[in-house]
Design brief:
Strands 1, 2, 3, 4, 5, 6, 7 and 8 form an eight-stranded mixed sheet that branches. Helix 2 packs parallel to helix 3. Helices cover 35% and strands 23% of the residues. With 213 residues, the protein is an alpha/beta fold. The radius of gyration is 16 Å and the shape is globular.
Length: 213
């Protein structure tokens, strides 16, 4: 993430958009009252705040690669002390990221949240493997993603820095979910010509490739 995008993720327009996205995701997939959940790429912590306030999670284990973002998130989330664990690390290895506080275990979480982070991960399929691994059977994966369609537009190419290989369209992302045991059904929507994808998938109990939901 370059300086332009780092500034944008902690801006009033982005916070407003996240509130809208959180409300849409809650309508699609419900709330998570009392659950222990994961946030991939917490950034400056505003998404974490929404997970606690809007979705009602009891505890959030949040990870981000950028120590400066972890510092901002810690400051923003001071009043939630005891309900949030912030870790510097990778979304492709949550066991390592959360080891300091005993998190990241198999089937240890009721939900995972992705507020436009996975498109930044070159090995994004590995991130989905981790999502499925840490979710309890019946646990939900809430995602808000930016697709290859958007990343190919001049505005994105000129302003932001994203991986250029193996980008996913909305259809490719949705098709990948069941390969990791994540059932999507019709709980997804695209916006602005397929640029943005929001949805909620459920972790199956029978493992990847078996749609028994």
């Amino acid at each position: 993430m370059n300086r332009v995008e780092s500034a944008l993720v902690d801006s009033p327009p982005r916070r407003l958009l996240q509130r809208v996205e959180a409300a849409r995701l809650a309508r699609m997939g419900g709330r998570t009252p009392g659950a222990r959940v994961v946030e991939l790429g917490c950034g400056p912590g505003y998404g974490t705040k929404l997970i606690l306030d809007v979705f009602g999670a009891a505890r959030v284990d949040a990870v981000d690669l950028d120590p400066a973002m972890i510092h901002k998130a810690a400051h923003r989330l001071t009043r939630y002390r005891g309900r949030v664990n912030l870790a510097e690390g990778s979304a492709t290895d949550l066991t390592a990221a959360f080891s300091a506080f005993g998190g990241g275990s198999d089937a240890g979480y009721g939900a995972v949240f992705d507020f436009a982070v996975i498109h930044h991960i070159p090995r994004w399929r590995e991130a989905l493997t981790e999502v499925a691994r840490v979710l309890q059977p019946g646990g939900r994966f809430f995602f808000d993603e930016v697709t290859a369609t958007a990343l190919a537009r001049p505005s994105y190419k000129n302003l932001f820095d994203h991986p250029t290989d193996d980008r996913f369209t909305a259809g490719e992302f949705l098709a990948e979910l069941p390969r990791h045991g994540l059932h999507i059904a019709d709980r997804w929507r695209t916006y602005i010509g397929g640029d943005y994808l929001l949805g909620v998938a459920t972790r199956l109990s029978s493992g990847p490739g078996h749609d028994d939901a």
